[in-house]
Amino acid sequence: MSDAVIFAVIFVGFFILRAVAATIFFYYILPQGDRCPNCDAVTLRVQSRGWRLLMPHVRPSWCFECNWHGLLRDGPLTPVAPSPQLTKQP
């Protein structure tokens, strides 16, 4: 093999390795669960088919209190008490 081909293979290999390492690193610094990283309020799940197909363990979320939007890792969800209007007996 020529030196140019060896250089190209090594260069492309390092580029791909860097992209994989960055993806893994940024995945683990994403917050886990359904709490907003800015104000610690419960976020709403935003339906996005593209993110679910590309990265199934990440969910796009939106905080209606501070207007933050971003990605969160799947994790424990905050339990929500049922509304008194729904639980009152007739």
Characterize the structure shown.
With 90 residues, this protein is of the alpha+beta class. The chain is built from 3 helices and 3 strands. A 3-stranded antiparallel β-sheet has the order 1-2-3, with no helix packed on it. The model has no long low-confidence stretch (mean pLDDT 86).
Explain briefly what this protein structure is:
The protein is α+β, with helices and mostly antiparallel strands and about 90 residues long. The chain has helices at about 5-30, 50-55, 85, and strands at about 45, 60, 70-75.
Throw out a few tags for this protein.
single chain; 90 residues; alpha+beta; three-stranded antiparallel β-sheet; 3 helices
Record the strand order, biggest sheet. 1-2-3
| H/E element sequence | HEHEEH
The gross shape turns out to be rod-shaped
The fraction of residues assigned to DSSP E strands is 5-15%
Mean pLDDT: 86
Helix/strand-derived class? alpha+beta
What gap, in angstroms, lies between the N and C termini?
83 Å
- What is the count of β-strands? 3
Question: Which range best describes the helical content: under 10%, 10-25%, 25-40%, 40-55%, 55-70% or over 70%?
Answer: 40-55%
List segments where confidence is low: pLDDT < 50 over at least 5 consecutive residues: none
